Amino acid sequence: MIFDLHCHTHFSDGLLSPEAVIARAKERGVSVLAITDHDTIAGLGIAQKAALESGITLINGIEFSSQWGKGGVHIVGLGVDVSSPALIAAVEFQEQARSARAIAIADRLSKAGFPGALAGAQEIAGSAILGRPHFAQYLVAIGAVKNINAAFKKYLGAGKPADVKYQWPLMDQVIEWIHAAGGVAVLAHPAKYELTRTKMCALISSFAAAGGDALEVISGLQQAALTEDLLRIASSYSLHASCGSDFHIPDQPWQELGSFGHLPAHVKPVWELLGYPQ
Question: CA 197 → CA 73, 191, 211, 218, distances in Å?
Fold first, then answer.
């Protein structure tokens, strides 16, 4: 069985609809898929219907933005009850936070010479939660920059004119939300936060101490040495191991659905906590 426990649809910052993600996962041989859109569960109902029709097992998921120290980290919730009052309240809280941040970003872009940024980005986002990628797409669409990377480098990235910091809820709070919704809390892509190894270990230690359940030891294509290192760290903190593509856009081989290394047989896979056999 191939488990891919981290991917995105157009309800957050992915390109494809939930139906298209399910279809692509089926083509790629994925057996069990978790859709984990950023701070929203809006696409899960659609995805469950498509998964049932395609024969794929879908795990309800979400990727929460949270705060650790001065930086943001992402916590994936797997197996959450989408009808849980705690989860619904958490999603509403995050949506309001993202809305306030989007307005602040648009205000800064307006001062930089782009007064239509809010409306333009919202049109691109459609039913998705408005985020920085939508502003980047807007800047590309109006010819202000050549591509999305350039939009971040010139306007939206750290230290740039429209860089708006936000104090997301603390990691402990997010783990509490996930557990209250009956889910399993996973620290997403720990090696991608631009931390030294010492600080990454401190992050993982804090996550475990706060009641976190698992570490995403594989995030898309990565070096085997990194996987082994993360597995050792997970084991040292008695964390289960998770894996996922972090799929957003088709035809990016480093983040393609189901295309990453398998977890070694000796580890404790996170899907055991979700009731699935290895």
Answer: 15, 8, 21, 16
Q: What is the DSSP letter of 69?
A: T
Residues 120-138 have pLDDT tens digits of: 999 998 877 788 989 999 9
The answer to whether 248 touches 9, Cβ cutoff 8 Å, is no
278 has a pLDDT exceeding 70: no
247, β-bridge pairs: 7
Q: How is residue 272 written in tokens?
A: 């055991």
Residue the block writes with tokens 């084991």: 235
SS3 (DSSP) at 214: strand
Q: C-alpha dihedral over 221, 227, 233, 236, to 10 degrees?
A: 130
Cα-Cα-Cα-Cα dihedral of 70, 71, 76, 81, to 10°?
A: 50
Question: What is the three-class DSSP state of 166?
Answer: coil
| Alpha carbon of residue 56 to chain centroid | 20
Asked if residues 50 and 74 have their Cβ atoms less than 8 Å apart, the reply is no
Integer Cα distance of 245 and 152 in angstroms: 23
Q: What percent of the chain has pLDDT over 90?
A: 86
Dmax over Cα atoms in the chain, in whole Å?
56
How far apart (Å, rounded) are the C-alpha atoms in residues 215 and 269?
A: 10
pLDDT tens per residue, range 148-203: 999 999 999 989 999 998 889 999 999 999 999 999 999 999 999 989 999 999 99
Question: Tokens 């979700």 identify what position?
Answer: 274
Residue 266 in this model has a pLDDT that exceeds 90: no
Three-state DSSP state, 35: strand
d(CA 163, CA 100): 13
pLDDT per position as a tens digit, 98-118: 889 999 999 999 999 999 999
